[in-house]
Description:
By secondary structure, the protein is an alpha/beta fold. The protein folds into 3 domains: 5-70, 434 Repressor (Amino-terminal Domain) (Orthogonal Bundle); 76-187 and 334-361, Response regulator (Rossmann fold, 3-Layer(aba) Sandwich); 189-331, Rossmann fold, CATH 3.40.50. 39% of the residues lie in helices and 20% in strands. Strands 6-5-7-8-9-15 form a 6-stranded parallel β-sheet, sandwiched between helices. Strands 11-10-12-13-14-16 form a 6-stranded mixed β-sheet. Strands 1-2 form a two-stranded antiparallel ribbon. Helix 1 (5-12) crosses helix 2, helix 5 (105-117) runs parallel beside helix 13 (334-350) and helix 8 runs parallel beside helix 9. The longest helix has 18 residues, at 275-292. It is globular. It starts with a helix and ends with a strand. Mean pLDDT is 81; it is low at 55-74 and 302-306.
Amino acid sequence: MKVKMVDIARYLGVSKSTVSLAVNDKPGVNEDTKREILSLLDYANKHDGQLPMKNTAVTEGREAITQKENIKEAPTVNGHSQIVKIVIANHQKDVLKNAEMDLWTEVLVTFDREAKKYGWMNTVTYLDMADDPVQVIEDCNQSIVAGVILFATEMEETDMNLIQNIHKPMIFYDYEVDEGTYSSICIDNKMAVRLAFEHLYKKGYRKFQYLCTGKNIYNFQVRRDSFKTCLAEKGLAFDESMMIPVGNTVEEMTKLTEDVLMDHPKDTALILENFQISIAVIYALNKIRAMRGSFLPQADDNEERTAELPIAGIDEIPTYLQGMAGFARVKIPHVDRAVMAMDLLHREIINPDSGKVHIYASPKLIL
């Protein structure tokens, strides 16, 4: 039986992309981590795809923490350990499931690690809206379940009619609930766009284009609204031509962004809505450079490489592409949010009548 990259990633507490880089001998992984990954892969290949049992430690990145010091004895109900359910709302938008870049393995590993610290077991369930979501709701309400974290990146407003039938302490992750009935932890999407916009505005740009996906999720809706707000605050007019849809997959985005960049006016700055578009822009820029030696109008290659491109992208890009970006990026703390979500859930389980809170994790501009 062949071991999967995701299994190695979860075992070591690293991302699936890190495992992929190590296995394919690409840059972007430090030597210690690479050695761990290859050693584990070699073990699995010699033992019919099985990974070694963990003894007295659980992996947290490159640090080992002992179970005795950090993991409490799990409380029980009728002799069974209590569990926390991570329920992933799935609308087949390929943001969480079948995504082209694995942003979420580290988040799920973090949920698992943090649950153990509080003495809970942890399970992950996909709430497929097209299948039979009622069964998942019933499972959440079992006595063995201590609480639920709803991974709501793809959630739609109409889903609330179903989700409100979960009668356990519950935290919304990656989605803000308007009502005061649930606590939530979100990306500060408004700040993410504002950081990108202000960075380009301070560089002297007064004309903007916003490259967006065809996916309609909460995070992207807030980012688009924030872009319009940023323009209005600077007295700049918005029109729909500034919003340029570039598709849903990296492949189609690369072709469409290439068309945008080939005729890109040098006085106009670009904001990229998500990591897929950033990856596509990098591929498109490299193709344009190969064809004409430069991307920036009226600049040779040396001049271009000394200047940051008038572009800012939101969210992560793969490690092996970071040195090729040539533009500012806004980093979003996905793993930190997972830690805070589990902490919030613990608070709600201990005191169900506590006030509900909304936490916004602050992004960071990386030049």
